[in-house]
Amino acid sequence: MGQLFLVYFEGAEFSSALEEMIRDYHVGGLIFYSIAGNIQTLPQVAQLIAAAQAQALVPLWIAIDQEGGPVVRLTEGVTVFPSAMAVAAAGSLAKAEAMARAVGTELKSLGFNLNFAPVVDVNSNPHNPIIGIRAFGSDPKQVTDYGLALWRGYRQAGILCTPKHFPGHGDTDMDSHLGLPRVDRPLEALQTTELRPFQALIRAGAEAMMTAHVVMPALGSVRPATLAPEVVSGWLRQRLGFQGLVLTDSLTMGAIARTYGIPEAAELAFRAGADVLLFGADPGFSPAIQKEAYAHLLREFRAGRLSVEQLDRSVERILTLKRRYGLGSPCPPFPPASLENHRALARQIAQDSITLVRGSLPPLAPDPLLITPVPLLGELLQKACPAAQVFSIPLDPTPEQQRIAQEGAQRAAQVLVGSLETWRHPAQRLLLGSLPPEKVIGLALGSPYDAFALPQIPVYLACYGTTPVSLQALLQVLLGQIPAQGRLPVGSHPEGSRSR
Q1: Looking at residue 389, which CATH number applies to its domain?
Q2: Alpha-carbon span 4 to 271, nearest angstrom
Q3: Is there a catalytic annotation at residue 177?
Q4: What's the burial of 264, exposed, middle or buried (CB within 10 Å: 0-12/13-18/19+)?
Q5: pLDDT class for 40, splitting at 50, 70, 90?
Q6: pTM of the predicted model, to two decimals?
Q7: Which of 143, 191, 154, 187 minimizes the C-alpha distance to 64?
Q8: pLDDT at 14
Q9: In terms of residue numbers, what domain contains 392?
């Protein structure tokens, strides 16, 4: 039964607690988090993975969230690629596939064999607080094409990936880490939008999928998809024909933990048809909750209330994929010989992604004022343009900070203003909207929807995230070193391409 469990742990060393989970509970895999202290250096990570695998009777899934953009756990010594939305803006499926192959190659050389990526949610809600630039855009075909490209790249690298979050998290206005989102779209809209990328991946041969903690009544359930047999067994397995491995999103996320007990949720997820129960390092829970869930399921099996036949099918799927992906085989050395090529690819994708959303970009003044919630952008600008002035603001600047920024903008010949999810930060939006528009160049440092929320700013660039390669590429465009040639991956209406 332990093979159903993919668990998190605390610390950077092979501890007695981790040994117990592997030796006594025979867990199927581990997930690595920086917030749990699992990641300090790459040699430390590789040694920890090797120590864990050496103790396992059945080789372990060694999993991580390494999507690129805002969701990466490894940041030092590896290639950190731009966000999915930046990848789509860059406009090359071949480079997208090469990116996944590069990420997979680096992960495999450290001992990882499972990456929780790519995100194939269609981001049809501009106010989505958790997907956004993690998605390839708002067009289902575009999301499908890029999802397939990344899936191919991971497969070529020998890394199992999990397209997520079935049946779709892109039209939500709530973060499922915090609460339980609900999507009330009609079935026809779900079939043409949310389900389309997953259906294409299933047809192509995807071997694993991750579920969403999202309620979709049109699919026949009042429970979140992760816990709904109507969605997992009904839609995913029977209607769409998926025969691969179904993994839950973390059962300790708020959408589940605040609505159901975690041990009870583990039971419900198994009953729904999940093969792998994921427990993440979400706030408010210790690794002990995983043992409680294990004990709860064991009682249910022993009492005959859970199906042993279903358990056998799940374990067979797990073991089949573990054999297919060669778990337990020696890892190639890190860094791979292609590391510098990977970094060059990340820079190229970032440069290709920078998008002029509107207006005509003027030359950069010798002494521009930059108002930004992202300090790294200011550091990069001042290195390239020593006379530049930088005023750092929080996401919600105080009235005094707004006043200082406004006075600086009045004195400056040119004003660069970085925006970051202004729809969630009204004080930031108020400040940016109050600046003299004839002087301002807007910089969407996250979601490009900021440009549509501030129509009074006549010139707006989008870089789709604050990873260093994206910020450096944005600066190159401002300096006139490269053109802004990205293509906007979302609808240009303030409400995006959302349809009801």
Answers
A1: 3.40.50.1700
A2: 12
A3: yes
A4: middle
A5: very high
A6: 0.96
A7: 154
A8: 97
A9: 355-478
